[in-house]
Amino acid sequence: MKYILVTGGVISGIGKGIIASSIGTILKSCGLRVTAIKIDPYINIDAGTFSPYEHGEVFVLNDGGEVDLDLGNYERFLDINLYKDNNITTGKIYQHVINKERHGDYLGKTVQVVPHITDAVQEWVMNQAKVPVDDDRQEPQICLGGTIGDIEGMPFVEAFRQFQFKAKRENFCNIHVSLVPQPNATGEQKTKPTQNSVRALRGLGLSPDLIVCRSAKPIEMAVKEKISMFCHVEPEQVIFIHDVSSTYRVPILLEEQGIIKYFKQRLNLPIDDQPSDLLMKWKKMACRYERLLKVCSIALVGKYTKLSDCYASVFKALEHSALAINYKLDLMYIDSTELERSTEAENSVKYHQAWHKLCKADGILVPGGFGIRGTEGKLQAISWARSKKKPFLGVCLGMQLAVVEFARNCLNWKDANSTEFDPDTKKPVVIDMPEHNPGDMGGTMRLGKRRTVFKTENSVLRKLYGDDTFVEERHRHRYEVNPELTHCFEEKGLKFVGHDTEGNRMEIIELENHPYFVGVQFHPEFSSRPMKPSPPYLGLLLAATGTLNAYLQRGCKLSP
Fold this sequence. Notes:
Its EC number is 6.3.4.2. It is built from 20 helices and 21 strands. By secondary structure, it is an alpha/beta fold.
């Protein structure tokens, strides 16, 4: 097993996840099996209870793990399926060690950070690195891992300082991602932050084999030589990644700077110097992305719109679908509270700007979420999409609110609501699930990959999924559509075309006599891949561009 540790310096959010994923993609294109582990130093057991504004979206895995969004990047780039134990947190490690101590495994010894916590980290990494993540179920050959040097992350840094000797030099490589800022006042690219960052890392006992320098603009050769000289590495060990038009370009930038040749020598890998067809496909995809001329605009109506990372997987799923049909995506984020009547009274300019965005969009998407804030605005957007026959996709809460909107405006149940927002509603069209335990918040939802069975052949989504009788997608919800009231909706044209395997839980809705009005209880964005777009999102983009019927008539084949 070869281990590649990716550390970050200067600032957080520098792009460790994308760079680690891109390196994994390059190694996979050389025929190697790659897995990935993300190390987060927070004390939370997992990311499930975070506000999206803290760390971006919560990514859900097949086994129900609620993890950091970087694991989403790993899955999309490498086309693998990871597990909850591929995300290590301080909370998980300490809980594991404390449980062992309570069990008596340490035989009366004083349990300390060194060696017990650091040993637990190393043991976890070695065990998880062997778990197959590809469809062929073979053991991986390379394990990528990422962490940072905050004060709370010191036990992990110390664990890897020890681990480099345990794994041996030819099996362990450290990549340090740093920032090369360019102040507007001088316009000069500054290397001092990178020098200090590498010095600090060396002081902790880790010496970088590759230094990946992030910058806004391409870095000059003189800067590369300066970093090489002051950071004690060869010039070819300094890699530049400037801001690019799309993340698809990053693996290509890395490959152009000789990273395959370096890894082959440094880790003694049994590979050719040239990448295979997989990287050629990435190159074609990156070039196609940059040449797109036709634009499709989608309005994303949500409540976490100030930070794009809150909807990272949704954005990627839309981007994958737009690229598949040769359109450039114009994603307009609309804060759902700005569509509400209360905003019109407080700030009429914001209100009218939000509605202007919504009205000019080619399609409307209402993603998942929790809590009552902004729900009235989402209901307004859904009502607009339904009545004006605008293509619409509702995901999780978006589907539940589509049911609430239909009940209020088509069934004339004016007090229809979800028990999440009004526990005493007379018409509970959305209810909490019987197995949900309101005591604990963490890990108590219906999570992970579950089967949805189509109950009719006359379904747009079934055709988009390749006419399969069932689909398996990832879930993350506490509430569900009330199965006792579904017959009222079906009589008026809102069809529940997909159920769970028992037939009690409503999974997919479709509205008759509408170009594309679809709601799904699951989160299809978590399974979307750059070369395999998610069918519900693809359907939205096809309907928004007016090409859905032609696509269905071709037997769900994309035009060349």
